[in-house]
């Protein structure tokens, strides 16, 4: 019997990526997909890659079919999962929120950054931050998983071996991050029109971005030292992919950092440490659930530079959500996720 | 037991696409990959999406391991398969040539277009043109398959229902085709540098392109009438995808053309006929083995326009090659090929 | 004294292209720019390339400053110029409409395609179709110029030498055209988001596009024979540029077509005929007012193929509008327009 | 009388950009252009935007016509200008080297980074670093100008107001830089093929890039304090544009940094300081000689972030070279350079 999956808010890029991955998953199938705006329309009208592939039709979010599912994924603006997760949990339906509603454990911090009161503090306590390489065991037992943000995924995987081994001065961490435009969603918006994005590059959210408190919280969970973090996102003229270039100061520059990273991830299928002198490219992980990481100590600058790439829709969203689902249902964590990056 | 696959000339985009598809194929595995220039190098040094995925190393083309395979794919410049296919066939190793050596049945025509003598006329007679939707039965029994060109695949699938039902004037067929740049290969070349291609579009090969005689030959195989064909390729500022816009004159404009196409392909998984008024986009089939086709009778012009899209590396090359392999080995034709187009 | 220019509806890509060209024009300056939605905002807030360059601020369309101009350009949706042109003409202010309101001389045909009644038939009679290479003298004397559509400009320049010399069968003209996405405008729209356009290509408007009657009308103005035209637009994953590939049958295939084109345009600065065997690329005319044309007789198909490229915002819109302005004010036609295409 | 310009090594992207700018320059004309490989070919065969625009033909580098010039630009690989500059200087022909031969004042440092002995130490002493906003007066009197690298131009303009006013801790400067692919040149190269670059992003040269010693040298020229610099270049999937995001620690966070930048550049036409909260986009300066800079103090991180954009072929190469030429010949520094960035 396949796991029955519900997708709430399935009109965007995360929605189609969930559909695409689940289509290839041997143990899961989409049982219901909802969109208030698209109710009654076939998904192939909305996603033309689905012509002749699926006869699914968008339902209203309160459709009963959603409550027949074993798990629901929220791919919705913040606030929606917060207000609706309990409806499913109380029916023993597991919940993964691909939005931000349960990522920040401190409700006040959440409210400051998301400009909305958090009404579900008890769920906030229960929710598990769904980064399998950091919290695998807790995820296995979770009913409610907060799927991490895309930038936090790239940054935290790059920092974890350093933090857990106390190798860096945590007071001066700089994460210069770049994202493909699919991270901005599929809503009509002048700022993300083709002609506004192509052949251009820019920073944004420099004075403050919502992934900042999320990254900081998770760094702090891995260290006792005070954390000073600077995080700058930039927008790339491409669809998919995030690259994080992270600058830190080593406490002891004699450590074999590459070996430390290789050890930290030797049993992790989805995190690949690159050989010395090889730097990651976002295309290497496009359409996949992989993360590639490279470390470079720069002698003339006396800095350690860590570079990390993921597909923001894959390991940064839908792929990681399916990885979490696999864990929550006791499946092989890699099921349905072993596609290689699409090159070219 | 998995089918042992050999890839000869595996350094280009067709090579990595074969690797990617076979990685997900339940019944096949790459046993040997060759490249004279890359001998001894790991494939992950050449294709960075393979880091930590495969330990394959490039062999020389005469390595014995190649002769342990059940099937070899030639992904080589023309001339190579012609001169080497027999070595494998005589050892009962099946051969699929993704190049052009066995596509043109007339050796003289081949020589005229490829500027090289054809030395293997008997193999030319034996070879089956590997378009499963046209020649499925012959492919099942073939030892040697000539995998079709990318443009011919897109054009022929679009014309087949019309030709087989004698619905058009075959003396005036115009195929205006556009291809992504991956069709030009991975060899260092000023003309296909990023800065030469991006934000630009151009026709090329207007006075004559090698896919012209191939398309014409296959059209002629489906009709008794004299064939007049104009074929113009263009280069798109994108990696993957071919679109063919084909202009024909209907003999009888009262025919229900859409129904004719739907009937022709109702049992074909990989060819999808779009609803009336919906036109195909190359992205819908990106990374997949699907073809999407749309037909539009234009009243004020009295023309039938047929539009067809494929991924030139998928259905136009490696995908179709695997589809042929599946048929040649009696497997389910769709095995390993049901990935949906990557969107976005 | 510089010509005082007004731009009505200056919030889109045509608006910024007018601003950019006029900034370099020795004899003109923008005196007023309007946008109902952007009233009071600085143009540098809307077009970030203008920071520190201009202190212009958007006015309301009824601002008096507009009536101090010598000429106004309408860069507005259809209907606006139709209803407002007279206000300027009666004050002896010349008008160039970059929209479609005065392009179609038959009011009924216009209404059929634009779904709106034409209320200004007398202005329609007066308006001159602003294609300088076809109607230079009439433009010099015009008060009201209908600036041609982008596709019509590319197609008509490619056909004019053939039509004026009666060299082709006009009953079977096929124009397969491809446009960059800037032609779709700057309004927020899901269909033209970066992630919807990049790495994809598609036909659109196949059953009928508003530039069809415009092209047909102007072809008919150059020939006595009945005209059969098929016009198919496609959308390119790039910002600027139109390519038209046109298929026609020669009446007499012995004519030296290249010489015919060279003669036709030998005194035209902005139309360049390419040497035999050289095909045009859209990038060659990017950001410029040039058109490049190539002709190729295809022997094995017995067709003449004409290929033409322009920048849809340059010669296809703002550049041609300035060329018209130059003519209307008795300036050197090339003034401010001799920038070379931006490569790369 | 126009300045007679010679371009040595005019086959690449810097060459065509020089041609394009000089074409619009009222006081200069290209008198000779050389390329050993392209001798005898018309420039329009090499740069298709030049069809019908110029009849220039490539000469050999020792052609006499070169010695009739008033100034020569070297757009050559390193080593060429070093060995040939003296030939021109002794004939009173001014020299601007767009390569790296005279940028590093210490010959040993140059040799370490460029893997070649420096044979012209006296010229090295004479050469002026051609950054007009930093060394205008020296450039006016120079015979030999070392045109700055593209990354150094973006970084140094962003740091100058801070360094000259001693506002930052110079021991911890991080410059995370991103460049369009035209910076990699026009030589055939697998790594910069369209399909390798599009839809991807990557760091490169992380352990050491030749622009590092150049940036460090010029920073040190503006401060007494010890300089600790980390510089990481990345490659963008676009043609033109560099963005530098620079992280520094303020000595006194109460300073009005924006005012400091505005004052520093209030008389500089080509450097625009953006309003608070507006961040630069590379497209804003595409095809232009402008630089746009933004400063943002990030409170929760206690860092100052400075962001700077230029066109790597404009202000980062050919534009700045022409600006230097204008200064060297006593012309208005802005002559021929006031084009606005091309948007879209």
Describe the structure.
The structure is a homotetramer of 344-residue chains. By secondary structure, the first copy, chain A, is of the alpha/beta class. Chain A folds into two domains: 159 residues, Rossmann fold, CATH 3.40.50; 162 residues, 2-Layer Sandwich (Dihydrodipicolinate Reductase, domain 2), CATH 3.30.360. The first copy, chain A, has eleven helices and 13 strands. In chain A, strands 8-9-7-10-13-12-11 form a seven-stranded mixed β-sheet. In chain A, a hairpin with a 4-residue loop joins strand 12 and strand 13. In chain A, helix 1 crosses helix 11. Chain A is globular, with a radius of gyration of 20 Å. The model of chain A has no long low-confidence stretch (mean pLDDT 97). Chains A and D meet through strand 7, strand 8, strand 9, strand 10 and strand 13 of A and strand 7, strand 8, strand 9, strand 10 and strand 13 of D.
CATH superfamily grouping of the largest domain in chain A: Dihydrodipicolinate Reductase, domain 2
- How many domains of chain A? The number is 2
Biggest β-sheet strands, sense, barrel of chain A: 7 strands, mixed
SSE topology string of chain A? EHEHEHEHHEHEHEHEHEEHEEEH
Rough shape of chain A? globular
Q: How many E-type strands of chain A? A: 13
Q: Hey, which two chains have the biggest interface?
A: A-D, 51 and 51 residues
Determine the fraction of residues in helical runs of chain A and give it as a percent range.
25-40%
Strand order of the largest sheet of chain A: 8-9-7-10-13-12-11
